[in-house]
Amino acid sequence: MLNFMENIEALPVADWTSNFVDMLTDTFAFLFDPIKDGLGDVMDLITSGLDAIPPVIFILLVAILAFFMTGKKFGLAVFSIIGLLFIWNQGLWDQLIDTFTLVLTSSILCIIIGVPIGILMSKSKIAQSIITPILDFMQTMPAFVYLIPAVAFFSIGVVPGIFASLIFATPPTVRFTNLGIRQVSEELVEAADAFGSTGAQKLFKVELPMAKYTIMAGINQTVMLALSMVVIASMIGAPGLGREVLSSLQRAQVGPGFVAGLSIVVLAIIIDRFTQNIYKDKSK
Amino acid sequence: MPIIKVENLSKVFGKNTKAALELAEAGKTKEEILKETGSTVGVNRASFEVEPGEIFVIMGLSGSGKSTLVRLINRLIEPTTGDVYIDGENLAKMDKKELRRVRREKLSMVFQRFGLFPNRTILQNAEYGLEVQGISKEERTKKATKSLELVGLGSYLDQYPGQLSGGMQQRVGLARALANDPEVMLMDEAFSALDPLIRKDMQDELLDLQETMKKTILFITHDLDEALRIGDRIALMKDGNIVQIGTPEEILMNPANSYVEKFVEDVDRAKVLTAQQIMKRPETINIDKHGPRVALERMREAGLSSILVVDSKRVLQGIVTADEANEARKNEVKNLSEIIQRDVPTVEKDTPLHDLFAVIHDSPVPLAVTENGKLLGIIVRGAVIGALAGEGEVNEHA
Q1: Is the Cβ pair B115, A190 closer than 8 Å?
Q2: Which of A222, A238, B312, B356 sits at 20 to 30 Å (Cα–Cα) from A35?
Q3: Ranges for the CBS domain (chain B) (predicted)?
């Protein structure tokens, strides 16, 4: 009885998957290459743009922005100055900019893809029942697994890192957009309908404005997940702070590893507080 | 021609709509149908007509289907069967585009929990119905401001709903509904979320507005006092069925069945009955024709100690008591105008019973009931008490 599994051959799921990915790589090569080049160019542009700003000015800009976004409080501004000065001091400024570009690009792509899917889910029960398990799958599958097809599609570098981040970090935006729209009070939806709104008017004038705090919470999660992919993406050649952590790991250097890790934490806290404050309900 | 005409309108929630409808037609109750088919009958074959300018109240307890019914009329809920004609156009058979046009131009709605958009200012809220029609910013601001002024909120344009009290928020709801100048206003428990004093103010204000606006209003409520106060006609609902339609008096005086009877039994009759309904035919004398002698004779015949005096057009002039008439006769006074007391306690015919107490309790003589000065009848204390007890005859078609 107990040996009954031994008599059955393993289903060749691994083979199927490999073949499927190979097939995708071959079939869509004409699509993957331009994406890789285009995205790579855009990121180079962002990186060189950010690099052109002298660190001192960059830090000051961040501090000023932080001061006004938190309602003229000094906490975040002071933290940003100290934290960024520390990273600069440790000689990790270029890596910081690379990481920031990676997070920024993948977050923006996540939002561009995630919000419309979330809207679709909120409008259609069928879409919701199809998309929900896919999101569960995307989030629970270990993130390393995405690196393999990412490399197959885009070879190594920063673009496959973004691809892996996209899969890993998009679900919260989709979920929270769906949730936010479904949570809009029924009476407001009825009011929009009763006065003769079209579907688009209802969405843009009522539902999205009412759901924006929830959606922003989702976007905040997405940005944090994208940041958490930084180290993982460095395994396939994405530059930045993650690469420092990885190389410290490979050489068993505790000190440099700690410094690079601390830099990621500083960046994470600054980005988190910024995204939390963008759409914070000031009246509450 | 009625502006709203509802014919055989039904709504079944659930899957087995056809079977449920058949059972409903066969007279099964809501519970029986739920048990047999698993579907709930929200509204069962409702039919009624509303005339332009009328306030038509749909009244029922929670679960009676009244909120469903009002949403069937502007199709926020899709009807299962039946027709809804607004101004001759059948909403139930329209495509989406047509429906949107009717909702924009002819219907508007006021909600129980106000349904205001918290991210928009008061003005932007009132503008909403015009905004979705694509009306220019300038014009919609003008119209919305005007309708906000109408409800007394002209100075709150830039506030947000959260900054206003419940009563004021519902005024915004009212202003928003009035801004696109609809022919029909649907008011779903519009005042139910307000505390009793504010609710009464709002009812008065609605009636005042209605004097000038002459909209057709479909008003949903679970509060019978409110229904009786503002309704020209009332439809009573129970378990998805319309049980009775009639004027407030008809419903109070002739309940169609034991359900309605039970419903109206607790009504404060003092608020509903009016002076006209409990008055008696008055004994009068004509100041132009008669003297003290005739006055005394009439009083003796009717067994009264005083008599009301009118002129030839039946305009009330005053009252003469038996003692004074006797005195006048002895002193050879010919004309009544010398002994008449001019200040007779008088009430208008529409005065509710409730307001009669204060006048009648210290009045030695009966109350005169008038309409534009003309004497219609009198009220004695016994009649007031009798009416309160639900006994004594009440004048029909008063």
Answers
A1: yes
A2: A222
A3: 278-338
Does the structure show a pLDDT above 50 at B398?
no
> What angle is formed at CA A26 by the lines to CA A22 and CA A31, rounded to 5 degrees?
120
Instruction: Report CA torsion sign: B198, B201, B203, B205.
Output: negative
What domains lie within chain B, and their CATH numbers?
4-106+182-267 (3.40.50.300), 275-388 (3.10.580.10)
What's residue B393's pLDDT? 53
- What angle in degrees, to the nearest 10, is found between the helix axes of A93-123 and A125-140? 150
> How far is the C-alpha of A240 from the C-alpha of A104, rounded, in Å?
13
Residue of B nearest to A202 (CA): B132
- A23, exposed or middle or buried, with CB in 10 Å at 0-12, 13-18, 19+? exposed
- ipTM tops the 0.85 cut: no
> Which residues make Cβ contacts (< 8 Å) with residue B305, sequence separation at least 6?
B299, B321, B322
Residues 161 through 180 of chain B touching chain A, CB cutoff 8 Å = 162, 176, 180
B160 at interface of A, judged by CB pairs closer than 8 A: yes
Query: Rounded to an integer, what is the distance from CA A140 to the centroid of its chain?
Result: 15
The CATH superfamily assigned to A16-52+90-278 is MetI-like (1.10.3720.10)
What's the gap between Cα A131 and its chain centre? Answer: 18
Q: Which of B127, B172, B121 is nearest to B150 (CA)?
A: B172
A201 near B CB under 8 A: yes
Concatenate the DSSP letters of all residues of A7-32 into one string. GSPPP-HHHHHHHHHHHHHHHTHHHH
pTM above 0.90, yes or no: no
